[in-house]
């Protein structure tokens, strides 16, 4: 093509300085444009002095040769972009069978180095359409073992391909020597620990690493005790893998804990994976005092650290210590929002005797305290809003008056905006309709009071007493026994007992709602100038043409065979306040009824069911 371009220069179609760039473009057949990206040159028209190029977003695009020489960058045929255009299926096979060959192609396409994000961007989804994460994990393991690749400790740093092979042990030691700061050295030492099985001489490598760590541990033990402790852990792990003896005079975990350090502060600075080991080392250093210190730490750390502290106490048979600490902090409204967040997430049956309405009160108090601390997050508030069952479960065993009190507290709380309050209040109302009037403010006399006979009131009270003193405690014992059988997921006795608990608690709530509204009476002195509660009414069914007698008594009175009905029934409601001679119409069970009131008399003693 160079001769053709020379001829075009001679006739004035092309500028001479463009010959070499155009030769490179036509030789490779691929290019990139800063705006249109990768393109494939499909034709070279020397008559009209133009290229035809298939860009990713502009297929069949024509471009003047002079302009192309200045605006296009040639792409070699072995470049990953060119390979994707010319041999995509071949790349896919390479991806499946030879991870490192594919990565080498990518790195060489970008000057010998590329970040993980750059590699993913160029390969997904064209070359690797399935699980990139799984593919990359497998490739990364191979990269670390291959001596031609430098894999950085930071994901944002580039992976480098080098023609000269360097042994794994040399590379890992070079990385360790190169990094600055104990924190970075811990990461580098961790890489060596992961690859210890593949090292040529792990004892010599371990000896060098341990010596360097010991120097820095000594300089960090007072200024950065958490980092020093983490370094001690990695040092001890490397020594164990290399089967080396302890170095005389080196600092141990006990040396860190013997200083004036706070357990909670150390835990918060440690990686989550090291929390349990940190607690175990603290426990070993303070075999007598650790339970007290750990329980005191609960209220000063994040939810994730709370979880580790609680698990240690439970594992060591100190669950009573844990529950006592929780109960005290909750009852005194001193529990932190993070501690309560952990408890809300945990919500296991082991804490069933603690998880009650008082926990929600403590949550409101904790969130109100946090409002004055800008560093505190709203994680507890967000969890309460997101977990649809939390609030309902916490107030499930509460008396109606307590639930009403909690409802008022929620309404007055500054922790939630109006929309969120309405959402939470709706959850309460769904389980406890009796609080609806408290929320809406629409409370009629009928909603407030129920007229009941003394006999029916006594029966309801007896039912409530039996429920609270016998049935619910018996059910709690059944739950405890069923829980002791093991795996709760397959424990049918446990599930049945929990379902029964829901039914009992629902009935308890219903009875409390009814009893608080109930007003007992013997129906003496009922007015008879119109139908009222406590009157006996003679009527004629005008459709069926026969007479009936109804005695309108209390809300819980019913003896249909004797004509006794509750004043809340549709029949009674249609008759109330009507006088002798009046006619009434109403529907009952979908059937239209029409009665004429013939006589009204005061109630005479009738046995009500």
Question: Can you describe this structure?
Answer:
- By secondary structure, the protein is of the alpha+beta class.
- Among the domains are: 2-75, SH3 type barrels; 81-166, Arc Repressor Mutant, subunit A (Orthogonal Bundle); 318-443; 451-520, Helix Hairpins, CATH 1.10.287.180; 535-602, Roll (Chitinase A, domain 3), CATH 3.10.50.30.
- The protein is built from 29 helices and 15 strands.
- The strands form 4 sheets. It has a 5-stranded antiparallel beta sheet, with helices on both faces. It has a 5-stranded mixed beta sheet with strand order 13-12-11-15-14. A 3-stranded antiparallel beta sheet has the order 6-8-7.
- Strand 3 (50-55) and strand 4 form a beta hairpin.
- Helix 10 (182-194) packs parallel to helix 12, helix 11 (202-220) packs antiparallel against helix 12 and helix 17 packs across helix 18 (319-331).
- The radius of gyration is 41 Å and the shape is flat.
